[in-house]
Amino acid sequence: MSFIGIDVGTFESKGVLVDAEGEVLAMARRRHGLSTPRPGHVEHDPESDWWAGVAAISRELMAHPEARHVRAVGVSAIGPCVVATDAGLVPLRPAILYGVDTRATRQGEALTATLGADEVFRRGGNPLTSQSAGPKIAWLKDEEPEVWRAARWFMTSQSWIVARLTGEVVIDHGTAGYFHPLYDLGEKRWDLTGCEGFIDEERLPRLAWSTEVAGHIHAGAAAATGLPAGTPVIVGTTDSPAEAVGAGVISDGALMAQYGSTGYFIRVSTTPITHQDLWAAPFVFEDTYVLAAGTATLGTATRWISDVLDITDAEDDVTFGRLLALAADSPPGARGVLAVPHFSGERTPFQDPHSRGALIGLGLGHSRADIARAVLEGLGHSVAEALLTYGRAGVSIDRVIAIGGATQNDVMMSTVSTVTGLDQHVTVSPGAAFGDAFLAAVGVGTISDPSAPDGWRHSRRTISPNPDDAAQLRADHEDFVAAYRALAPIHRGRFSDD
Question: Residues 6 or more apart from 328 whose CB is under 8 A from it?
């Protein structure tokens, strides 16, 4: 018996074939592009970026002998995205991505004014930010009315993929929880009151829990992917909850720190908790919830600084190794250079799409190494400020499990732990696709108790606060926050039309 999990990320899609004991039998991945047609607009092409990758990965995994025993399929993807399709599930335009896409700032502000900030927060447990999908649907009506009128469905990334596999249009409660102000967190249902001018419930997917079976692979999808017709496909979720489950972040008080193209953080609870500076939503299992945070840049910033410093190689690992080696030539604190790495605005806690990056304190004596270290430490300060928001909200963090490729960024990781005082237990696992396979196994009953799955966990190393650097980095962190606040009015005036 085996399970397939596929995750569609910002820059690549990954898939795994896993047996019933949690052993990864095969892996596959495909790179894809990212489009930024205008400042603040970040898009994917669902057909070429998502479906082509899913089909190729599926065919590669199905070539493994054990794939003939595949029991179920799970899919996750970046989100919340907005995908407008016709009745035949054909996308009418490129998909509008999650919080890194800031195009709908004006619509979010207008909705907040119309509904009232208190009502928006009461309904969804969140203010409207760039992470909110509702304003992006309103943006389509305002800016691309022909697309809006033609759309039969407004769904998210994994919903569209699951629909292509099964013909069923369904969304998990966890992702729907980010379609604010269209979802009622307390009632766990769509609530479009005051939003009828740009959306109606018939154009939104059916709600379900992540581990429910959405449908079964139909003949057309089987021909395209090689997956056996009739195989169950679960509803799935976004990549971050799938990562959390795969890493073992299930218990109350545990927090997953996902270090990828952006930073994303999920704190699990058995009761709903809301706070103005954090994002509340259901988790993947019924009667579980998350309180989440995120940063707008992380791995994307390391790509950028590598290009700027001209150390980019065709192999990502080589590029990253060069960057870390260069940064190591500068001491903690980067000899006074401080970076605010808000290259795409910032999310938690500032929720400021207009913020931009800055290097502060540069002098003629500074080097490329100082700039490299400052940017990596700046990313650590961004993450630390997001995590410190939980404490200010009165929410404890009992255990941090860190995942993602950027956990290899020791400069950033040490900065995070030293500033926050938190140990981070790094989990080496195949990522969200592994979580998808796990959820698929739960969905068809192979795993009956998600909290105790023998064999479905992976090794860890621990990153602890560094007392030798604590005074320097904590002082730098105070300056980091002060620098953002001082620069915010300037950036708002210069970039408010992005």
Answer: 369, 373, 411
